[in-house]
Design brief:
The relative contact order is 0.02. The chain is mostly helical and about 160 residues long. The protein has a domain at about 1-105. About 95% of the residues lie in helices and about 0% in strands. It comes from Patagioenas fasciata monilis. One of its GO terms (cellular component) is myosin filament. Keywords: Actin-binding, ATP-binding, Coiled coil, Cytoplasm, Motor protein, Muscle protein, Myosin, Nucleotide-binding, Thick filament. It is found in: Cytoplasm, Myofibril.
Amino acid sequence: MASLEHEEGKILRLQLELNQVKSEIDRKIAEKDEEIDQLKRNHLRIVESMQSTLDAEIRSRNEALRLKKKMEGDLNEIEIQLSHANRVAAEAQKNLRNTQGVLKDTQIHLDDALRTQEDLKEQVAMVERRANLLQAEIEELRAALEQTESSSIPRTPA
């Protein structure tokens, strides 16, 4: 019977050891489960942070694309305005050249008219001098005529 008790003692010791090993394994499993849960939480926070960063980058990219399209539209509008302004400036330069040509022609005509006016003034002055000379000559001839008439008419005694 001693051997049976001895065997039962061995079994009890083995069961006790087995229970201790089982407890140790359960404790280690619980620690590992806690580590895994902590890793899951950490990774979840990292994923959420990355998702938030990705969302912000997507919003920034969409805003950049919107601004790019707006700027391209603004640039297109400015190019159209510049083209129009260039056409207006070219037309204004053409009109200026035409006006300068007309002004030059008008100045030439004015200069010609002024020269003609000066020539006419000189001619008028010459005609007036000649008329004055002729008038003086007429006066002299009248005086001479009167003198001749008075000397040729016999005087009758009164």
